Amino acid sequence: MADIQGSYEDLFNAVPSALAALLDEGDAGGAVAVFVDGEPVVDVWGGFADAARTVPWQRDTIVNVYSVTKTMTALTALVLADRGELDVDAPVARYWPEFAAAGKDGVLVRHLLSHTAGLPDFEGQWSAEVAYDWSSATARLAAQAPEWEPGTAAGYHSLTQGFLVGEVVRRITGRTPGEFFADEIAGPLGADFHMGLAAEHDHRVALTVPPPSHDEDYKAGAPGINAPTPADGTGIRVRDGNSVAWRRAQIPAASGFGNARSVALVQSVMACGGEVGGVRLLSQAGCDRAWVEQFQGQDRLLGMPVRYGLGYGLFGTTYGWGGWGGSLVMVEPEARTAIAYVTNQMSEPGDDSRGLEMVMAAYDGLQGLRAKAGG
């Protein structure tokens, strides 16, 4: 069995066992963390940080979690909303006047957070370099017309959501979303999560490993059976996500770097009514705002049914989101629990249930805690 490092409470021994099983089945490396009441009950890792399997995954190894980053960007907006600096029901153009162009004066901030704004892609020729230039990317989105009447349909804004929400954050605060996140969220919490990674952290990064039988030209695609296939030149490739340019850029929908511990710590804020470790970032009402359903139905791009809140997917009483490659975070406010799984090993999106396996293993432990408390 694969060697698993870290610590866990006995009730949660199914979690390290599940991680070891994935590594035994061929995954390169990964980490899992479960926080209850803002404290870790599981913090484990194992495997390797490189495709050649020569560099062991360490306690401080970090990895690109792709769209799990969206939950961090959503949190920046929710913090501003809770402070009264951002009205999620206001037109985006109140904060970003240029955005009113091409019939977008009726697009509301909540439409950006719920993938209903009608701007799921960049118009025209696209390459990863577009995402590296903040001013150019946001200007392009401000000039575009929506693909549908905002608020009437949902289509996953895989890259654009971060620029849209992030530019609103920048207009209000004068700081990039990565700077605001570092100053106001990660810093106070002591969380090792970064949007716009400094060179000093490069040596800790576990580069993404493509799925078996694929190379670094493997492109992002939607998991739904009926989802469209990205056209040539419009899909993010593994080599893009592994590039230095990607790490340095502000791509708040997809270029966050952290480990399971930092993801679970940050999202414990949402699990615990806005306060973790004596640091209050939100009121309870500010957290509850995220769980109000904004859309339920078929996502036009993912090709599957979804429920969206403000920046989070809604799954019964559990909230969260997953990223390209397999990373996942789930928040369970009723149990004051956050569960995070991160990995450098990609799998085919339609076949990837690894994150949910970790969540189910964690629920075994949560049931044990409930039974213990009841007894």
Write a compact overview of the structure shown.
By secondary structure, the chain is of the alpha+beta class.
What would your notes on this structure say?
- The chain is an alpha+beta fold.
- Helices cover 31% and strands 17% of the residues.
- The protein is built from 11 helices and 15 strands.
- Strands 1-3-2-15-14-13-12 form a 7-stranded antiparallel beta sheet.
- Mean pLDDT is 93; it is low at 222-233.
Record keyword descriptors for this entry:
single chain, 375 residues, 7-stranded antiparallel β-sheet, 4-stranded mixed β-sheet, 11 helices, 15 strands
Task: Please count the helical segments.
Answer: 11
Separation of termini?
34 Å
Gyration radius, rounded: 19 Å
Please state how the strands of the largest beta sheet are arranged side by side. Answer: 1-3-2-15-14-13-12
What overall form do the CA principal axes indicate?
A: globular
Q: How much helix is in the residues?
A: 25-40%
Round the mean pLDDT to the nearest integer and report it. Answer: 93
Number of strands: 15
The biggest sheet, with number of strands, parallel, antiparallel or mixed sense and barrel status, is:
7 strands, antiparallel
Beta strand %? 15-25%
Helix-strand pattern, N to C? Answer: EHEEEHHHHHEEHHEHEEHEEEEEEH
Structural class by secondary-structure content: alpha+beta
Low-confidence stretches: 222-233
